[in-house]
Amino acid sequence: MSDSRHVVLVGLGTCGISVGAEQVFLSLEKEVARLNLGDSIQIKRAGCQGFCQQEPIVVVEPEGLFYTKVSPDDATEVIQSILDKGRPLERLFYRDPANDSPIPFYRDIPFYKKQEHNILKNCGKIDPENIEDYLAVGGYKALQRALFEMTPDEVIFEIKRSGIRGLGGAGFPTGIKWEACRNASGDERYVICNADEGDPGAFQDRSVLEGNPHSVLEGMIIAAYAIDASRCIIYVRAEYPLAVKRLKIAIEQARHSGFIGRNIFGSDFSVDMEIFQGAGAFVCGESTALVRSIEGKRGRPKPLPRARTSEIGLWNKPTLLNNVKTFANIPLIIFHGAGWFASKGTDQSKGTAVFSLTGKVVNCGLIEVPMGITLRKIIYDIGGGVPRDKAFKAVQTGGPSGGCLPESMLDMTVDFDSLKKAGSIMGSGGMVVMDEDTCMVDVARYFLDFNQRESCGQCIPCRLGTRQMFQILDDITKGKGRVGDIEFLLELSGAIRKSSICGLGKTVPNPVLTTIRYFRDEYEAHISEKRCPAGVCKL
Amino acid sequence: MQTVSIKMDGQDFAVPKGTTILEAALANRIYIPHLCYHPDLKPAGSCRVCLVEIENGQLVTSCRTPVNDGMVIKTKSPDLDKVRRPIVEMIIASHHMDCKNCAKKGKCELQRIRAFMKIDKKNVERLRQPRYELPLDESNPFFVRDHNKCVLCGICVRTCQEVTGLSAVDFAGRGNDTKIATFGDKPIADSRCISCGECVIRCPVGALVFRNVRRPASEIKTICPYCGVGCGILLGIRDDEIVSIKENREDPVNEGLLCMKGRFGLSFVHSPNRLKSPMIKKGGSFVEVAWTEALKLAAGRLKQFREGEFALIASTKCTNEDNYVAQKFARLVMGSNNIDTPARLSDAPSIYSFLEVTGGNRAEFGPILPHATEAASKNENGFSEIYNASCILIVGADPANSHPVMGFKLKKAWQRGARLLVVSPKEIDLCRHADIWLQPYPGTEPALLTGLAGVIVGEGLLDNFFISRRCDNFDEFKESLEDFILGRVERITGVPKDLIAEAARIYAACKPAVTVWSEELTRYAHGRDSVLAILNLSMITGNIEEGSGRLIPLFTENNTLGAFYMGCLPDLYPGYQPVISTEVRRRLEYLWGDTLAAEPGLPLMDILEATYNERIKILYIVGSDLVNISQPKKIKSALSKAEFVVFQDIFFNEAAKFADVILPAASFAEKDGTFTNSEGRIRLVGKALEPAANSMADWQILCDLAKMLGKKGFDFNCSGDIFSEILSVLSKKSSEISTLQARFRLMPLQYNPPAERSDVDFPLILVRGKDVYSNGILSQNVEGFTLLRKKDFICMNPKDALDYEIKEGEKVRVISRWGEMKGTAKLTSSTPPGVLSTAAAFNQLINPDVDPVSKSLETQMCAVRVEPL
DSSP of B602-645, one letter per residue? Predict the structure, then answer.
């Protein structure tokens, strides 16, 4: 028997479960039970460790051994390796794609080494279904500090001072939003967490909710205290059943422990928390559409001019709406102080950004990096570059409303403002790498197809415009492009951007605009030469 | 009015503060293309066609952006065009291009925009065209929905929300698959749509178009002949035919609203079933004859009888002028006060209760005193009072089905913030919006209403100032409330006492409070009690005032109130002047130039009883479906005993079978005159057509007959002559009121249970419901209504259905102590357990005997049992 207690963490996020981590977890438990090692080895459920590509992942603490692609049959050997002190199971180690050398500890893996984990820090390390784990890493300390050491104004001041901007994509300064909501007149206020993550290829909100739901709850409760709200609602996609389940458990536990409900920590402050499951409309991530969806109405954004949701929101009451990651940052800011947060990132974009790095890149997964890092660092240092020696072609950020940036932009820093300048957006943090085999017209077509299906249908430019653009792109990829289509696409894009009601419509042309801007020659090849340079389209 | 100055397209304008850019532009004849804007609706800002450029080149939707002082607006600019043009081109590309064959041709907003922006086919060719076609929805007999022409402006959706409060349609699907759909995307005829057509008149394109509408050569302003709301309509006439019906947007009564009956229900005027010629019964069948022959026969027979042997049943559908002449005919020509209307069984208790409360003849308040002229009535508070109301109590009424335009108005009042209290045994449409829905057992409303009064008195929520100044008999009334302690009221009505108390507090606290009721409350043996209970409530809270419009009895027919006020009542002369008053009688004898009977006549059921007993020998029936007002068997046997029956109507009905002479009358569209609606407003009926075939206006027929009988005082040349005489008959009264301030008498009540009671053999209560397409004689002659009517559904609670082993859609038999009916079961939780509800006529089921105390019939409900067929 070993002296110190071992913890075996199994990544049980949706990513892990989808490749059989549940079975791995069960067989590990079974093995421990069989050997009657319950006292010395704890098999623990954890959230996604971020390196989704290598799932199912098993981490053995305190050593920090990192086993990848573990199968249930490996359970016996994994447990055995713990018993045979210092004889790790080498065949399950991660191997450096560059030289195939095994790397036993996750802290040494380049994918992790170059990242800076703030809100992901405890994802994959604590049991999301056990509040004790969260408390053990300092959970709800920030709430305690806010309630007893700070006035609501001081909390807002601290948030403002940290410089944090909304991580849902638009990057609106969070503190200013909080302040506006607090100052808005109303007998009741609400805090809503926007967990309606719907971008294809984006899963960072889900991972946070699955891996560390309490951090989001704590952030929301602090926000409720700051703006004097009595009710918190988490608007989460119904397509995230695991996140919903873990949130339910977390809310139940937090309520049981007295962090939600009447007189929190014995203070005068009371707040309630509930979950609202979205019905699967992409546009419901837009604040006014989300609010209407909760009200039981059709999820449609409200046109301008209108009051901000922070002034007139849910049921016409002031409503604070922030993204999952924004809320997850709040306890950290309150706990470590605004200065700690503001020291990370750039002048205008503080803190870290979380991306779902996917596509033609060696290391796929969930990453957290400081704002201001270059695209090149993300793709090559963390992502390990483009596999199979293919040439890099473009990186798409910000989901279907974002843009495709070419090689020449790789040294651009990643923050709200520079991405916007380049024609893309931060968005909710999807990042898709494309190699030379990718046809950029086809990519634009793919995103427009998504957009035209997810347009709410309210305003004509978005409803008909996305459809029209999709049809033109579809024609181009089928060799039916006409001369003048590029100009017409640009004209349509301009009209849609300027006249659509909501952010969805205003950013919908981005994939087209950036691909024309940076890869116009590919369009021209399709139209005039009836040729797909990447060899993707059957013309 | 505050104005702001703006500069639009280089011109300076001063426009009212708060208007939107679009409104300001349109008012100053600057056209800004727009699709989703409609002046009646809140701006949606969704079509994006009305974009304009303001400072710094910012583009804003002109329909939603209010003007600011000094605002500089460009409605045209190259930048704007670059944005607007592709939008409009895309709409046109995805729209039906066949303008030539479109019913909206020339009235289409998209056509207008296209012309304004000079977009031709060539511009649109560079666009990809949609490939699919959606099928038409032709399920509704009155209008067609064509999704292929729809621009999804949402005007229909917002109309159905904001104007009618129905929400029968909404957007469904998303993105390019978005379309306007009913719940479950069923055909519109199978949805909750009531075919009011409000969306059709507002549709800017050809997506919603009326069927069978032609351009009229002329338009005549008149009044809808259906219900007691009395909506203003414009009859479009071409080639002696009604080819279109439009809402009168200037009319203060309906404010441009119409329901399906006003908009689509007037084809009965041209029904082939209309009576075309006078007829005489010869050897058991009717033979067409000339007017002179028919009238001669009638005159000859009428001459043989006098006074008590004659009775006239007047019509609540005929004009005031018709009714005035009818009662004058009965009283002056025949010397009989035996005159009444079928409204005796429905709405009469409302009038009599008003009279009681104001002390007999001093009835000069509320809706029952019609305003003397149309012009004078314009400024009076009538229905519009509901928009000022803080609280609206709806009891024994289902306005959304019986008086749909009133239903729209009530929902609008609710949208504007009025608290809504609904008292109804079954769930009605307005229950959705109600703050409190009190659900009493059928027929226990008087107890519930008095229970409300008990709470108000008990908790001291009274208007003491009003009571001390204007009300009599408070102490006695207060004492009577001891019988209505909440516990007892809860036991009687089944409504939880806390809920009653809460409703009472809202009613007392939210002034002004308006109360709305209908025949559903008064078709009981104790109908009088219910209305008195309402009047008591309004007295103790100070909600009863002359002309305040806070008491709204929704009369069933278009001219129920007019028929009452014109004196078609056995005990009251025109203006509710009592027959028993010698002074009044003398004055009328002087005005009419002959002696009058001193004794009041018999009310309707007594007339039929007397006919059965052969004391009344002659019946003159004007415009009434007499057989179907209560137990048909009993009425038929009475009619068969009459020696001579004159039947005068626009349609043949069952009573006509007993006629000796049938006289064809002109419809509302074929005569001048006035109707008096439920708020007491006198409404001008305009003649749009010549009388159909050989028919004549009712008053004219009666006058001709009177003259043939040698009576003077019937030499009227036109309806205006009659109206002048009416005014002179009423004139003395009018001068009296100006000096008098009415006092109100609080009426102590005892609890009378409904006459019909359930027992082991008849455990269920069947109540009368209303189908929105109604089933009176007029709507039966409108083809589309027959299609849309919910047929003969017997609605029952699923729990009862389980007990009686009845399945949804099954044919059932409903049996009462007096008869039976068949129907189709419809299981719905809107009918409470123990109650059945049907819109079908069930007169054969009701107790044929008159209640010995109240002298009225209970036609609203009866005890039944139900079994599968």
Answer: --HHHHHHHHHTTS--EEEEES--GGGGS-HHHHHHHHHH-SEE
Could you give the C-alpha distances from A365 to A358, B740, B810, in angstroms and in order? 7, 89, 61
Rounded Cα–Cα distance for residues A494 and B862 (Å):
70
Q: Select from B343, B374, B399, B370 the least CA-distant residue to B514.
A: B399
pLDDT digits over B760-798, tens only? 999 999 999 888 887 788 888 998 998 888 777 999 999
Among B60, B84, B128, the residue with its CB nearest the CB of A468 is B128
CB-based burial, B702-738: b 16+ in 10 Å, e otherwise: bbbbbbbbebebbebeebeebbebbeebbeebeeeee
What phi and psi values does residue B845 have, to the nearest 5 degrees? -90, -15
Q: Which residue has the tokens 């199978």?
A: B190
Q: E strand or H helix at B506, and its extent? A: helix B497-509
Integer Cα distance of B847 and B53 in angstroms: 73
The secondary structure of residue B130, as a DSSP letter, is P
Contacts of B85 in chain A (CB under 8 A): 495
Q: Does the beta-carbon distance from A457 to B94 stay under 8 Å?
A: no
Q: pTM of the entire structure?
A: 0.90
Type of residue numbered B109: E
Under 8 Å between Cβ of A93 and A103: yes
Chain center to CA of A100 = 30
Q: Which two tokens stand for residue A523?
A: 């369009």
CB B660 within 8 A of CB B646: yes
Between chains, do A466 and B176 touch, taking CB under 8 Å as contact?
Answer: yes
Q: How far is A298 from chain B (nearest CA, A)?
A: 8
In A35-151, where does DSSP find H-type helix? 75-83, 110-113, 131-136, 141-149
User: How many Å apart are CA B581 and CA B585, to the nearest integer?
Assistant: 6
DSSP A107: G
The whole-angstrom separation of Cα B280 and Cα B571 is 32
A487-496 as b/e, with b when 16 or more CB fall inside 10 Å? ebbebbbbbb
What is the interface pTM, i.e. ipTM, of the complex?
Answer: 0.87
As a 3-state breakdown, chain B gives helix, strand, coil percent values, each rounded to 5, of: 35, 20, 45
With CB atoms and an 8 Å threshold, state whether A457 touches B128: no
CA–CA separation, B213 and A191 (whole Å): 54
Residue A387 — left, alpha, or beta (φ > 0 → left; ψ -120 to 50 → alpha)? beta
Q: Write out chain B residues lying below 8 Å of A289, CB-based.
A: none
Pairing between β-strand B279-282 and β-strand B241-247 as defined by DSSP bridges: unpaired
Q: DSSP secondary-structure letter at B159?
A: I
Residue found under tokens 């050569």 = B217
CB within 8 Å: A455 and B82 = no
Query: Which helix or strand (DSSP H or E) is residue A232 part of?
Result: strand A231-237
* Residues A193/A213, Cβ–Cβ less than 8 Å: no
CA of A471: which chain B residue's CA is closest?
A: B128
Burial class (CB in 10 A: 0-12, 13-18, 19+), A3: exposed
CA–CA gap between residue A491 and residue B20 (Å, rounded): 29
pLDDT digits (tens, 9 = 90+) for A191-226: 999 999 988 888 899 999 999 999 999 999 999 999
Longest CA–CA span in chain A (Å) reads: 76
pLDDT digits (tens, 9 = 90+) for A230-277: 999 999 999 999 999 999 999 999 999 999 999 999 899 999 999 999
C-alpha separations of B619 from A517, B321, B655 in Å: 92, 21, 11
Nearest to A463 among B51, B65, B175 (CB): B175
Which residue spans within B86-240 are E strands per DSSP?
Answer: 143-145, 169-172, 179-182, 208-210, 218-223, 232-238
A466–B86 C-beta distance less than 8 A: no
